[in-house]
Amino acid sequence: MHIDELPTPVPLLDLDIMERNLERIVSLCREAGVAYRPHVKTHKTPELARAQVLAGATGITCAKVSEAEVMARAGLRDIFIAYPTAGRRRLERLERLARESTISVGVDSAQGAKDLNEYFQSRRRQISVLLEVDTGHHRCGVLPGNALEFVRFLGNLPALRFRGIYTHEGHVYADGELWERLDRARCAGETMAQLAGALRAAGLPCAVVSVGASPSQHAACAIPGVTENRPGTNALNDATQVHLGACGWEDCALSYLCTVVSRPAAERVIIDGGSKTFTSDHLSGWKEFGFLPEHPELRFVAASEEHGILKTTAGNGSNLQVGERIRVIPSHVCGSLNLHDRLYTVRGDRVVGEWRIAARGCVE
Amino acid sequence: MHIDELPTPVPLLDLDIMERNLERIVSLCREAGVAYRPHVKTHKTPELARAQVLAGATGITCAKVSEAEVMARAGLRDIFIAYPTAGRRRLERLERLARESTISVGVDSAQGAKDLNEYFQSRRRQISVLLEVDTGHHRCGVLPGNALEFVRFLGNLPALRFRGIYTHEGHVYADGELWERLDRARCAGETMAQLAGALRAAGLPCAVVSVGASPSQHAACAIPGVTENRPGTNALNDATQVHLGACGWEDCALSYLCTVVSRPAAERVIIDGGSKTFTSDHLSGWKEFGFLPEHPELRFVAASEEHGILKTTAGNGSNLQVGERIRVIPSHVCGSLNLHDRLYTVRGDRVVGEWRIAARGCVE
Fold first, then answer.
1. B34: exposed, middle or buried (C-beta count within 10 Å: 0-12, 13-18, 19+)?
2. Do B264 and A307 touch (CB under 8 A)?
3. Which chain A residues are closer than 8 Å to B142 by Cβ?
4. Of the partner residues A64, A307, A323, the one whose CB lies closest to the CB of residue B87
5. Range A15-235: architecture per CATH
6. Splitting chain A (364 residues) into consecutive groups of 10 residues, what average pLDDT does each group show?
7. Are A219 and A32 in contact (CB under 8 A)?
8. C-beta of residue B281 within 8 angstroms of C-beta of residue B335
9. What are the chain B neighbours of A212 within 8 Å (beta carbons)?
10. Which CATH topology does A3-8+248-356 take?
């Protein structure tokens, strides 16, 4: 089937580009001597997670228990839930999940660790945990200076098996020059490696030293002592990654096919995808909703829920007509795929398959 | 069931508040002498659309053909698709849909109207159309000065039955004082009423004169000559509507129950809902992701995909502990409900039902 037979707006996954991206990531991890454990929140698609494992991933990373449930049902067996798993309902589901699959989870608070320990102890089971460390993103995680004491505290909780430390160096998305952002990633890697050394010097085991953020993965995982890389977006890439200098447009595997639905003015083109197709996410200084590789004269400057509002750059018009189709690379691939139930895999302009985004909407 | 038995994050619809909101809207429309045709893109939930019809709506408004298909299957029979319906695949589905239900659609371009006419003519059928008018939002729509000529052009397309004109006065969401925004809405209503008069004076019928934007609905639909009101959000309301002065917090029928998952610092509380629960939508000067009625000391200042990042206001700390649950009123109810498969209806803290957000993700 040709892509023009699909209804729009529709997400298209270019398998040639995705395969090349995966090869690159796996080579990079192999050269750095670290494991590749991709974050599947980017695509929420079991087929794609399987492709990542076939390419060389040792396991996967999930954000939520419900996301991990979908992946486990699809046969993905080694799952790290990089999230503080609090709340009674979530603990029940986590314990059930951990009976069938190899599961480890993040902890970053005394209360969270105690609740986790108590629940698993009541079921006469153990769970592997990694300590989340805040290396500068200032979201979750304990500060490096408090980590040693926290790991000792974990040692008194018999249902928890401490396996190591992890961080999301998400502050590489913040403003700054490329060299500054890569420097933040290197600092995060060094902080993690030093902390692992300090833990081991204190007689505490620390098998896993895990980092993960797509725009700077080569910088963070190259630090000696880091053992694992958990990038998400760079399996597919998006306009934000290009804006951050992490890849080129030719490396963006995911795009949307859209239809022009209105031409109200010479400088304005309206397409059938807005914030309910692309999200309103803006992760960095890039403030557009997508990029149109075939129409560099157009900027995707605004979005209502079902309208994408494209404007021509100064002095330009556009010949696009109502009914014509155009390809758009989304600003944020993770948020945008989460809006859809399925994606179509393509090679060039041929549709070669349909994959269900089976963990879409799994936030529990 | 008590709400605390639900997994989080989860959307809760307070039926008492929703019913009061619907009564108010219906009274307002009755007093203004206009029909109430709510936009169901807000909730995408057939049960809620049925509640609106039972409360007095004459029919519903949809944004996309696929959304209308879901509503028609659920028994909603009088549907206006307030969107320029371009693209071959969409025309095929529209024609099928119009065989079973009373459907009208928007047009705003010569090409779109010709394609629509050609397709319906080829199937030996007719379709009702309304002309979209741009009253200042500058998204879709013909400018008022071009409308008479456009309606004459429509008269030459035999498969199209012209029924009237509609506008979305979305520029009431833009910056400005309340009086300025209400004035924009009144101007939009006056433009529409004058245009309808000019069409009739030229011998062209114009049965429907339709406006619709929640923050200013009372202003726009009170203009003599306006016949129909198509608000969406005000059936449920959200933090943006409160920010715009359109309602109070006590009028927000939709909230999310969330769990605290991390307490990394005295001034920082992390909950289990981020942009994949609430969206990143910001429709007005309100730049937060939600509002916490029970915790006015906290501001919902940032969101990653699965993390809501709450910060205390200056000089305050928070006693919230990991595992505690809190209610959040979303910034934009339309975008946030579109992320979820179901909502729970509640009266107070009791869960009384579960409704499927059956048209979620319908963007085709």
1. buried
2. no
3. 264
4. A323
5. Alpha-Beta Barrel (3.20)
6. 97 98 98 98 98 98 98 97 95 97 98 98 98 98 98 98 98 92 96 98 97 93 97 98 96 98 96 98 92 94 97 85 97 98 98 98 98
7. no
8. yes
9. none
10. Lyase, Ornithine Decarboxylase; Chain A, domain 1 (2.40.37)
